[in-house]
């Protein structure tokens, strides 16, 4: 089983085959070990067999040189369909092989394969799966006032934050008792500080705000009143994919927010897919 963690990052498929193959090799080697054959001789024989296998594979291999994009695409679809033949989705391999190839080819040469996100949704059929040319992630928790905000934008400008825009919550049914003006002023100042931060975000020109940390009800209502969409507690993976796809930078302070650090995409919408709502950024 130690083969699997090394095999998957390198090849990505064939984990069952490699385990069965390794088990069969050990089965064939066992009699020689019992007869006292030195391990070095056994290892030398295995390495010799490996070389013979590599020579045979190179002999059978088909060289791919100077193909047109259409021919290359058709070959990749065949390869993807072959890899899916032993999976649970083998009956829909024609459908998913085209989707997989389209996803890989849509990546820029400098972008790694982990930029392709896979989101699983309960319910519906396999053929209802779709490829989003951009970024999509599940809707995060939202406070009251969120429903007032628009759910779609054209020429979207995105503020990516690692800032908490929320007043610290107390325990359930907690109350604050203030016995002097100074204590009351501290409460007002805390809320005012949040409003100052949201004001600077609004002045930057952003109309979609994504933050890794919570965005409270005060900030949510502020953004909704100004026709801005916001989402807090966005997963780090989704925030980084959005940054790489749409540009911009993740900011840790509102003081440096300006149009140059905002991400951009042609279209944003929040849409119901199956039993979940998703935030979708297209044509980044």
UniProtKB/TrEMBL annotation:
<dbReference type="InterPro" id="IPR027409">
    <property type="entry name" value="GroEL-like_apical_dom_sf"/>
</dbReference>
<dbReference type="InterPro" id="IPR017998">
    <property type="entry name" value="Chaperone_TCP-1"/>
</dbReference>
<dbReference type="InterPro" id="IPR027410">
    <property type="entry name" value="TCP-1-like_intermed_sf"/>
</dbReference>
<keyword id="KW-0547">Nucleotide-binding</keyword>
<keyword id="KW-0143">Chaperone</keyword>
<dbReference type="GO" id="GO:0140662">
    <property type="term" value="F:ATP-dependent protein folding chaperone"/>
</dbReference>
<keyword id="KW-0963">Cytoplasm</keyword>
<dbReference type="Pfam" id="PF00118">
    <property type="entry name" value="Cpn60_TCP1"/>
</dbReference>
<dbReference type="InterPro" id="IPR027413">
    <property type="entry name" value="GROEL-like_equatorial_sf"/>
</dbReference>
<protein>
    <recommendedName>
        <fullName>CCT-eta</fullName>
    </recommendedName>
</protein>
<comment type="similarity">
    <text>Belongs to the TCP-1 chaperonin family.</text>
</comment>
<dbReference type="InterPro" id="IPR002423">
    <property type="entry name" value="Cpn60/GroEL/TCP-1"/>
</dbReference>
<dbReference type="GO" id="GO:0005524">
    <property type="term" value="F:ATP binding"/>
</dbReference>
<keyword id="KW-0067">ATP-binding</keyword>
<dbReference type="GO" id="GO:0005737">
    <property type="term" value="C:cytoplasm"/>
</dbReference>
């Amino acid at each position: 089983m130690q083969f699997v963690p090394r095999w998957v990052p390198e090849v990505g498929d064939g984990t069952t085959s490699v385990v069965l193959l390794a088990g069969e090799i050990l089965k064939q080697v066992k009699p020689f070990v019992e007869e006292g054959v030195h391990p070095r001789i056994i290892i030398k024989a295995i390495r010799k067999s490996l070389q013979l296998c590599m020579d045979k594979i190179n002999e059978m291999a088909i060289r791919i040189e100077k193909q047109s994009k259409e021919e290359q695409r058709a070959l990749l679809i065949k390869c993807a369909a072959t890899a899916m033949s032993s999976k649970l989705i083998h009956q829909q391999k024609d459908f998913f092989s085209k989707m997989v190839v389209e996803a890989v080819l849509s990546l820029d040469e400098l972008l790694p394969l982990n930029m392709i996100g896979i989101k699983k949704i309960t319910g519906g059929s396999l053929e209802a799966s779709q490829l989003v040319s951009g970024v999509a992630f599940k809707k995060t928790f939202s406070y009251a006032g969120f429903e007032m905000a628009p759910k779609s934008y054209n020429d979207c400008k995105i503020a990516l934050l690692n800032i908490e825009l929320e007043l610290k919550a107390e325990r359930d049914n907690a109350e604050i008792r203030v016995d002097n003006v100074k204590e009351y002023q501290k409460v007002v100042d805390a809320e005012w500080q949040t409003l100052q931060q949201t004001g600077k975000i609004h002045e930057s020109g952003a109309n979609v705000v994504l933050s890794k940390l919570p965005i409270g009800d005060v900030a949510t209502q502020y953004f909704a009143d100004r026709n801005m969409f916001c989402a807090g507690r966005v997963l780090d993976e989704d925030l980084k994919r959005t940054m790489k796809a749409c540009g911009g930078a993740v900011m840790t302070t509102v003081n440096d927010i300006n149009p140059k650090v905002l991400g951009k995409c042609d279209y944003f919408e929040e849409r119901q897919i199956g039993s979940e709502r998703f935030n979708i950024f297209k044509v980044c």
